[in-house]
Structures are given as C-alpha cells and as structure tokens.
Amino acid sequence: MSTLSESKPLILSVETATLSGSIALSRGEEIMAALAADSGVSHSNTLLNDIDQLLSETQVDLSEIDLFAVATGPGSFTGLRIGIATVKALSATLDRPCVGIPTLHAVALAAGSSARSVALLPAGRGEVFAQLFSVTRDGVVTELDKATHISPQRLLEKYNSLESVLWCGEGAIVNKAIFEGDSRWQIAPQEPILATHVASLALAKFLEKEFEEPDALHAIYVRPSDAELKV
User: Fold this and answer.
1) 72 FRET partner, CA 20 to 30 A, in 19, 63, 210, 221?
2) Considering only CA atoms, which of 124, 1, 156, 17 is closest in space to residue 74?
3) Are 148 and 171 in contact (CB under 8 A)?
4) Quick one: pLDDT at residue 3?
5) pLDDT tens, 50-75?
C-alpha cells in the first residue's frame, strides 16, 4: 500500500440499513461522490448497479479501493443482509480490508456535535431503535448506553431527565411531535445520504488499523426478526 493510500485511502461505503440506503466513495476525508438509492426498489436489485455507477462517475476501478465499509445495523433486516453480504464478497474477492459501522453511530455523527445525542431509526410497528451518544466537534462518537428497541412512550420515560438532548435520525423526524413541545430538546435535520458518515467513521478505523475479516462482519439486529418472533 502506498503512502498516499495509508493517509488518504479510497473507501467505498455502503448503507442499506435504512429504507432508501446510500453509497459513497471517499478519498481520506474528501467525499468524491455519493448516491442515495431509490426507496421504492429493493437494495438487491440496485446496489451493484449503484456501485458501478458511482465508480464510473469518479473514474475509479473497483480494484483501486483500499477499504470497504458497511453499516451493520440496526435497521432493515433484509437491507442489512444485502449490504453486508456485498461488502463481504468484495472484500474477500479483492483481498482488501473491511469494517462494519453501527448505523446509529453514523446517525449520531450526521447530526453534528452534542454532549447528548439520541439517535433514532424506525423499527416498525411504531417503535424505534435508539441509542444515546456524545459527539465531539472532531467527529468522535462515544456510546453512552446500549442500542435498544423501544416504543416512543418508553423512550420518553428513559431519557426524560436529560437536559439539552439532540434527537437525530429518521426516527426523530417521524416522532417529532412528541419532542417538539420541550424547550430542552432539539431535533436535527435528517441526513439523506448516511453513507458519507459511515465513510468518516470507517476512515478513523482505517487510520487505527482496526480492520475486520470479511467472515467476521455481522449484523446488529437489536431485536429478533418478525419471522423469529412468530416461531
């Protein structure tokens, strides 16, 4: 690996945890190109084509990628499996390192710096995936509790005592009516292309040489799938 690649690696980031999903190509801290997918079409039908389009637009060959990154959940069970399987295959085939980035970490980073950020993603049936973080100005995301699957009412009970909370992510937008009446709290604008923040977190792991073997990549589901619940 060249000195340039060691300091400014080419990173292909995949995020299929959310309904639309997105991908990004970055060189070091610079986002070269990013693409939001079509929320009306399955990731299985579009992901490889979207990657081809992104590489074509930037005139980058797949063999030039230094690191593959993927959002590992929580999120859509089917989407996570597709994204992780794709990154596993690319990493193994091209003999390049890969990293998994928890989706809620990327959601918190996308909202900006905050002493207390609660990242939220829809979990179906009116419930959400939630986790509390602190985020520094230079993009260090620190977990302050564990990711959980929770109803909006229980969410309020859990975090009601906190001051100056920044609610972030699609789950915060969907449930904004329950947060808006409290002057202590803010709701962050939703970031439509989460893959760019997956890329930022992946770069930090790359620089620390915190890689994963393709077989070690696994999804963070937080709750059982609907199929498992019916067993």
Assistant:
1) 63
2) 17
3) no
4) 45
5) 999 999 999 999 999 999 999 999 99
Q: Give the span between the Cα atoms of 198 and 194, in whole angstroms.
A: 7
The per-residue pLDDT for range 177-199, each reduced to its tens digit, is 999 888 999 999 999 899 999 99
Helix residue ranges, H only, 122-176: 152-159, 170-174
C-alpha distances in angstroms, 165 versus 106, 132, 135, 155? Answer: 17, 9, 12, 13
Q: Which two tokens stand for residue 142?
A: 């620190």
Q: 35 and 142 share a domain?
A: no
E strand spans, the chain: 10-15, 22-27, 30-36, 67-71, 98-101, 114-124, 127-135, 141-143, 148-150, 166-168, 186-187
Distance of CA 3 to the CA centre of its chain: 28
Q: In what order do the strands lie in the sheet with 22-27?
A: 30-36, 22-27, 10-15, 67-71, 98-101
Domain interval for residue 146 = 104-187
Is the same domain home to 11 and 29? yes
Q: How far apart are CA 174 and CA 69, in angstroms?
A: 27
Please determine, for residue 221, whether its predicted confidence score (pLDDT) is greater than 50.
yes
Whether residues 50 and 88 fall in one domain: yes
Please give the Cα distance from 72 to 128 (Å, whole number).
Answer: 16
Residues pairing with 150 in the sheet: 128
Q: One-letter amino acid identity for 26?
A: S
Q: Looking at the 3D structure of the chain, how many domains does it have? A: 2
Pairing of the two strands 166-168 and 186-187: parallel
